[in-house]
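Write out this protein's structure.
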Amino acid sequence: MTSHLRTALWIAGFGLPALPLREGKEPFGNCPACARSACGDRPQMKAAGPCQCPAPCHAWAAATTDRDVLTGQAWARAWRQAGAVAYHPGGAGLTVVDLDDADAVAWARGNLPATTVVPTTRGEHWIYRGAMQSKNGVRPGIDLKSTMSYARWRGPGTGTMSALPDAVRALAVREPTARRTRPVAVPAPTGGGPCPHRSPAYLERGITMAERSIAGAQEAIHTSVYRVFLAVLSKHGWCSCLTEAHVKRLFTAAQAKGESVRHCEDAWANARTTLGL
C-alpha cells in the first residue's frame, strides 16, 4: 500500500471523498471507454457523480469514501503513479477558499471570518462548513473549490471550522472586475522567421478553433488552456503573423472559463518555454 493510498483511506474515514492526482496536481485521464464522454457520463456528473466505470475517471466525480473502491484493482495503477491526494470538498459539504498568494491571504484576513486554515505552497486554504458552486478567479489570486471541483490534501490544518459565510457566497456572484480590466501582460511572440501561411485566413481559422476549444473544455481547465496555447504557438509562434490582438483573444476566452490573468500568463510562458521560443 502506497503512502498516498494510506492518506486517502485516512481522510475517507473522516468523510472526505478522495482521489489520486498525477504529478502536477492534475487528475488521471479518463480510460478509453470514458474518453470524450463516450460512456454518457456528462448528465450524471452534473447531478450525482460519475458513470459506473471502475477506474478513477471523471476527475472530481471519481472521488469516493468507499474503501473497497479506493483499494480495488482498478485504482491500483493510479495509486502507484500518484503524486498527491485530492478530495472533493462539495462531496463532504465543505468549501475551500484557495488563496494563492500573500495579497490574497491578507485580503481574507481582513474580510472573512476565521476558520480552519491549511498552509499551501504559495498561500493558504481556508475551509468552511457548507457547500456552494465552485468558481475560479473570484478575486485576484482567489478560487472557490466546492461542488464539481477538487482540492489537494495538504493536511488537517489548524483552527476551528466555521460555517460558510455570506461573504464567501457573494464572491461567486461578484463581477471579477479586476481580472477583466487588467491588461494582457504577455506580448505576442515575434519569431522573425519566414511566414509559411498562404493567407491570413489560415491564422484566423486557427485562432477561432482555439477559442472554441477553450470554450468547450469541461474539466482540467488549466491543462486545457495550456494545451491550446501550446498548439497555437507550435503553428504560429515561429513567424511574425501572430499579433497581440490574437493573444488577447485567447486570454479572453480563457478568462471566460474562469482562468485568472496570472494563470493565462503562466500557461503562455510555459508553452513558449516548451517550444523554445
